[in-house]
Specification:
Strand order of the largest sheet: 1-5-2-4-3-7-6
Number of strands: 26
Largest sheet: 7 strands, mixed, barrel
CATH architecture of the largest domain: 2-Layer Sandwich
Strand content: 25-35%
Distance between the termini: 9 Å
């Protein structure tokens, strides 16, 4: 199965005829053939082929072909030569998200990122965005959002795609019966669908427990801990993090501390401000937590606190943005160092944290040895991604790890995100990494759809 790049043109003839330049006929091994099957996404039609004299690799599609198979646009695209005289255009890549359906921002706060994906991807594939309600399962087609030459969205009907990149925005949307059915339907049609869903913290810790080599990077963690486990963790570690398993952006997180002669302390964020409370007994601390959260504490995890490296007395952790590349290997694409705000429970930027490059942060702590420490952290991140993928049952193409380095230079993994935010790429020194992140998503889509360039075959 060969892959070649060609220029697609549209003609006004109504028949189902495909005109192929001599060089392209040779590339696709179609010399002497009278008919082919032309495929786009999950749809295919029979068509007559006629050779034409034209220098270069060109494909002219009569309007009967264009409308029958719903080719979205002319221009450069890959052709994949399949068995039985079948030729596939593409790949056809769908980006699944959701939003308020406003004309200018159909995907809400993700619209800018989706436009960037579509802009970069249009040179490599037919790429569109869509919402769950845009799928017509009876006709097996999608009313997708394409980006036109002036950078505006336009709707076009296309067949079901070769691959789906899932960027649904909320856990609630993702756990609905309709979305579960949607994923199963794509699976039955053998359409690769990555990233399957948001991770729950407790699921990630449980998956990594099965791999001793990866689990040593995870602090001691217990899901839905009993009162006795909480007391034991505080007695042994003196400080712990208590956080919701399905939380994000630092919401609902407590840093709990036990100082034998001073009592118990709870640090958390409320109404945009940092709060610090002192309790004389463990029981009074637990009463406060139960009073604030009640039954929802069953969805909390407790995790050993780690004494992280610091700058100006403020702890630092690192967001490692991981991607699968076009050869299906995990690579570190971007790293942001997050410095906690004064008195903050977490390093989240919305809670007063500051973003630095890893070189800035590690240089201040380790000096000349910073490159060596960073390399060790990168190797660890790749190991963790590989382990998580082996233990996880579904396709992963992107992971955000929150890693920390303690004062003994040990590396720890606090959280893994299946749909990491992109705030680190706003840093002026990390914009190139943001562009590389987009390129890796597109290259992985080409890999999953089997549109691999010859050097990848």
């Amino acid at each position: 199965m060969g892959l070649t790049f060609c220029n697609v043109h549209f003609t006004k003839q109504p028949q189902r005829v495909v005109y192929v330049s001599g060089e392209l006929m040779k590339s696709l091994k179609l010399s002497g053939k009278k008919n082919i099957r032309l495929r786009l996404g999950k749809d295919a039609i029979p068509a007559m082929i006629k050779p034409i004299k034209r220098a270069g690799k060109h494909l002219f599609l009569a309007s009967g072909v264009k409308s029958a198979i719903k080719i979205p646009k002319s221009g450069g695209i890959y052709l994949r030569n399949l068995q039985n005289d079948e030729v596939q255009l593409g790949p056809l890549v769908g980006v699944l998200s959701d939003g308020p359906a406003s004309a200018s921002q159909p995907f809400g706060s993700r619209t800018g990122f989706i436009k960037q994906l579509l802009r970069e991807g249009s040179n490599k594939c037919y790429i569109f965005a869509f919402m769950p309600r845009d799928i017509d399962w009876q006709q097996e087609q999608i009313n997708g959002y394409f980006l036109n030459a002036s950078g505006k969205f336009e709707r076009k009907m296309v067949p079901l795609p070769d691959v789906v990149y899932n960027r649904l925005p909320s856990r609630r949307a993702e756990t609905s019966p309709y979305i579960n059915q949607l994923r199963e339907r794509f699976g039955r049609k053998k359409i690769p669908y990555f990233n399957w869903s948001f991770f729950n913290k407790s699921d990630v810790y449980r998956l990594l427990e099965n791999d001793g080599a990866a689990n040593r990077f995870v602090p001691e963690t217990h899901s839905n801990p009993s009162t006795e486990q909480m007391r034991d963790m505080l007695d042994r570690h003196h400080f712990v993090y208590y956080k919701p398993s399905a939380g994000s952006l630092g919401h609902g997180i407590y840093r709990l501390t036990y100082l034998p002669k001073k009592g118990y302390f709870a640090r958390y964020r409320k109404s945009g401000k940092n709060v610090l409370l002192r309790f004389t007994s463990f029981d009074s601390l637990m009463r406060m937590l139960r009073g604030r959260h009640g039954q929802s504490l069953q969805n909390y995890v407790v995790q050993q606190g780690i004494r992280l490296i610091e700058i100006d007395g403020c702890p630092i952790d690192f967001r490692f943005h991981m991607h699968k590349n076009g050869s299906n290997q995990w690579v570190v694409v971007g790293i942001g160092a997050k410095k906690a705000g004064r008195g903050s429970v977490t390093t989240h930027l919305k809670n007063g944290g500051a973003l630095l490059t890893p070189q800035q942060a590690l240089g201040r702590v380790f000096g000349a040895r910073s490159d060596e420490v960073l390399q060790r952290a990168k190797t660890t991140a790749v190991k963790l991604a590989e382990s998580l993928e082996i233990q996880h049952r579904h396709l992963l193409g992107e992971i955000g790890f929150d890693l920390g380095i303690d004062q003994d230079e040990d590396i720890w993994m606090f959280e893994a995100n299946a749909k990491p935010g992109r705030s680190i790429f706003r840093h002026p020194s990390l914009r190139a990494e943001g562009k590389a992140s987009i390129e890796h998503i597109l290259e992985h889509c080409l890999y999953l759809s089997k549109f691999r360039r010859r050097d990848d075959l």
